Automatic annotation (TrEMBL):
This is Sugar phosphate isomerase/epimerase. It comes from Rhizobium straminoryzae. GO terms for molecular function: isomerase activity. Keywords: Isomerase. InterPro entries: IolE/XylAMocC-like (IPR050312), Xyl_isomerase-like_sf (IPR036237), Xyl_isomerase-like_TIM-brl (IPR013022). The lineage of its organism: Bacteria, Pseudomonadati, Pseudomonadota, Alphaproteobacteria, Hyphomicrobiales. Residues 22-260 form the Xylose isomerase-like TIM barrel domain. It holds the Pfam family AP_endonuc_2. It comes from the Bacteria. SUPFAM superfamilies: Xylose isomerase-like. PANTHER family: HYDROXYPYRUVATE ISOMERASE, XYLOSE ISOMERASE-LIKE TIM BARREL DOMAIN-CONTAINING PROTEIN. The keyword Isomerase applies. Coiled coil: none annotated.
Length: 283
C-alpha cells in the first residue's frame, strides 16, 4: 500500500519554510499539516488570508510536492472560549471552531484536530450526564459544519499533564466519537498522548477497535519532543494500521527545537526507515 506520510509545520519557524519543505521533499514526504498562525504568519487574521497570500503559499507547497492534509491549533489566539463554562463561552468556542472549519473548506483541508485542552476543562461540580449532553450536542453541530465543508472534525485525547480533565485517554475519546455518531466527527490517534498515559502497549488493540473512526495519526512524543524517538515503535503502529485497513495520513507532530532543521532531518529519516521496514515485513 502507498504510505501517506506528513509533518506538522509547528516543527519549524516560518522563516525556515523553504528549507523545511526541501527536507520533506528529499525524504519523500508529501503531506503537510498546518497551524494557520504559522503558515499565514504576519496576516492580521490567519483564518482570513488574502487570495494572493494563499496562492503564494500554495505555490511554495506545490514546488516541493506537498499537499495540505490536516489543520491544528484551531483556537490559537481566541479569548473567552470554553466548552463547559456557560452559554456565552461555549458560543465563542463553537463560532471560532466554525471559522476554522470554513477555512479548512476554503483550502480543501480534509482533517481538523481539536485538541485545545484548556478550552475543554470540565468544572468540578458538573454532573457527568450534563458533560456528555453538552459535548455530544456541540460536536454533532460541528460535525454538520465539517461535513458541509468537506472535512472531518477530529477529537484528540489529551493527557492530564496538558491541562485538561476531559477526554484524557484513548478509550474516552473513542467512546465520545461513538456516542456522537456523526460521519464527520472522528478520532485523532496521538502516540505521544498514549505514551504519557502509559497506554502505548494497547495501541494495536485500540487501532483494531477504532480503525473505522480514525481520520488522522500523530507520530508524537511526550511534550511534543522530536518524534519519532523510536523507529521500532512506529513500525508496530504502521503494521497495526495496515492490518486495520487505515488509508489516512500519518503525521509527525513535534515542536520546534533549538536546531529545528537538523532535528527535522533526523526524525524524517527515522519515520521513513520505519515505513520501509513495515513495508518489508508486510511483503
Amino acid at each position: 500500500m502507498t504510505r501517506k506520510l506528513a509533518v506538522s509545520n509547528i516543527a519549524w519557524a516560518p522563516g525556515d519554510r523553504d528549507a523545511a519543505y526541501a527536507l520533506l521533499k528529499r525524504h519523500g514526504i508529501s503531506g503537510l499539516e498546518i497551524a494557520p498562525g504559522l503558515l499565514f504568519h504576519g496576516s492580521p487574521d490567519p483564518l482570513l488570508p488574502s487570495n494572493e497570500r494563499v496562492a503564494a503559499e500554495f505555490a511554495a507547497m506545490q514546488a516541493h510536492g506537498l499537499t495540505l492534509v490536516s489543520m491544528q491549533s484551531l483556537l490559537f489566539g481566541v479569548e473567552g472560549a470554553a466548552l463547559f463554562e456557560g452559554e456565552e463561552r461555549q458560543k465563542t468556542l463553537t463560532q471560532a471552531l466554525r471559522r476554522a472549519i470554513d477555512f479548512a473548506g476554503r483550502l480543501k483541508i480534509p482533517n481538523l484536530v481539536f485538541g485545545s485542552p484548556r478550552q475543554r476543562v470540565v468544572p468540578a461540580d458538573m454532573p457527568a450526564d450534563t458533560v456528555k449532553t453538552i459535548a455530544i450536542e456541540a460536536f454533532r453541530a460541528l460535525g454538520d459544519a465539517a461535513e458541509a465543508a468537506g472535512t472531518k472534525f477530529g477529537l484528540e485525547f489529551n493527557p492530564v499533564a496538558y491541562g485538561t480533565n476531559f477526554l484524557n485517554r484513548a478509550d474516552e475519546a473513542l467512546a465520545m466519537v461513538e456516542a456522537v455518531d456523526h460521519p464527520a466527527v472522528t478520532l485523532i490517534l496521538d502516540l505521544g498522548a498514549m505514551h504519557m498515559n502509559q497506554e502505548f502497549s494497547q495501541v494495536e488493540d485500540l487501532i483494531a477497535r477504532a480503525a473505522a473512526h480514525i481520520s488522522h495519526v500523530h507520530v508524537s512524543e511526550p511534550d511534543l519532543a522530536p518524534a519519532p524517538a523510536s523507529a521500532e515503535q512506529v513500525v508496530i503502529v504502521l503494521r497495526a494500521l495496515d492490518r486495520a485497513g487505515y488509508t489516512g495520513w500519518t503525521s509527525i507532530e513535534m515542536k520546534q527545537t533549538a536546531t529545528p532543521l537538523d532535528d527535522l532531518d533526523k526524525v524524517l529519516a527515522r519515520l521513513c526507515a520505519a515505513a520501509e521496514l513495515a513495508r518489508e515485513i508486510a511483503a
